[in-house]
Write a structure and sequence with these properties.
Length: about 60
């Protein structure tokens, strides 16, 4: 299982995603994702996904 960190152009963490579909959904919702980095195995162990990409939609 792989996790990904999504960053904006300022290098701020926007979200942690598990699939490319989640990353696509965030981009489709207009989130300013400038960079996606695959998390290292030791980082991904402590990562827990508690919601869906819609949780990052600030317009709701």
């Amino acid at each position: 299982m792989h996790f990904y960190s999504c960053f904006d152009q300022k290098g701020q963490l926007i979200a942690r995603c598990q699939t490319s579909q989640e990353i696509y959904a965030l981009r489709h919702m207009g989130r300013p994702i400038a960079e996606v980095r695959k998390m290292k195995a030791e980082e991904a162990v402590v990562c827990s996904l508690t919601g869906s990409p819609s949780d990052f939609n600030e317009e709701i």
